[in-house]
Amino acid sequence: MANSWSTTILPGGKWSGTIGKGKLIRFTALEAGANVAIQLFHAKDVTERYNMPDTLKAQHTAHLTRGNVLMSDNGRVLASIVEDSLGWHDPLSGYSSRAATDAKYGATRFQEHRNEWLRSGQENFAVELVRSGLSMRDMMPVVNLFSKVAVDLAGDMHYDVNHCPAGATVTLRTELDTLLLISNTPNPLDPRSEYPAVPVRIEVLAAEPVGEDDYCLNYRPENRRAFENTWDYHLLLG
């Protein structure tokens, strides 16, 4: 049996699946200018999910990189960022909508354009939520991998169009069984007038156990507390 799995998400594509704890999920931008939006749920209890405010507040940050963890609304760690070639991923900008996609890139519909129609993040997530037994009421904040959005002193948000080169990678490690939803659609703040078309490869591999010297565990005291909550959960389950 193979000990790894991989697939390529084409531009506008989507994917969802359950990934067991103790796995590495490596994302690779196959061309420059990628953006992949992700949502994360605890696969064994989907009422527990990624909590953007707690993740950012506890780690005193407005962007994500190696060492940061993606916390759930139960104070546990869903996933840790263990490797990152870019140093900045966007947790603030959300996902694209149908109306915004039509306004920026021109209106397209499947009926006329078939598989060439330009998908939005909102539509992609809606489909994958339903496939997982969820609904639009479960729509949640996303992490936009490969994107850099900086906020200036006036509160204005700025998208860096040159942030992601071809071959950029970021790797998550699952700390709970995780339902992962993916949409390979443009960042809503991307100013380019042409719909970005960057395929992204996803690989799932086995991870080493978390040791006392783990970088993510020791990144902040709040991270350790979230890991301890996660370990208690697994211990009580047996």
User: What oligomeric arrangement do these chains adopt?
Assistant: single chain
Give the strand tally. 12
Average pLDDT reading: 96
Rg over CA atoms, rounded to whole Å, is 17 Å
Specify the helix fraction band.
Answer: 10-25%
Q: What would you note in describing this structure?
A:
The structure is a single chain. The chain is 20% helix and 27% strand. It is an alpha+beta fold. Strands 1-12-3-10-6-5 form a 6-stranded antiparallel β-sheet. A 4-stranded antiparallel β-sheet has the order 2-11-4-7, with helices on one face. A two-stranded antiparallel ribbon has the order 8-9. The longest helix is centred in the last third of the chain and has 17 residues, at 221-237. The protein is globular, with a radius of gyration of 17 Å. The two termini are 26 Å apart. The model has no long low-confidence stretch (mean pLDDT 96).
Features:
238 residues; six-stranded antiparallel sheet; 12 strands
Question: SSE layout and pairings?
Answer:
Blueprint: E1 4-9, E2 14-19, E3 23-29, E4 36-42, H1 52-59, E5 69-71, E6 77-84, H2 98-105, H3 110-113, H4 121-131, E7 143-145, E8 149-151, E9 157-159, E10 169-174, E11 178-183, E12 200-206, H5 221-237
Antiparallel strand pairs: 1-12, 2-11, 3-10, 3-12, 4-7, 4-11, 5-6, 6-10, 8-9
Short description:
Helices cover about 20% and strands about 25% of the residues. The protein is built from five helices and twelve strands.
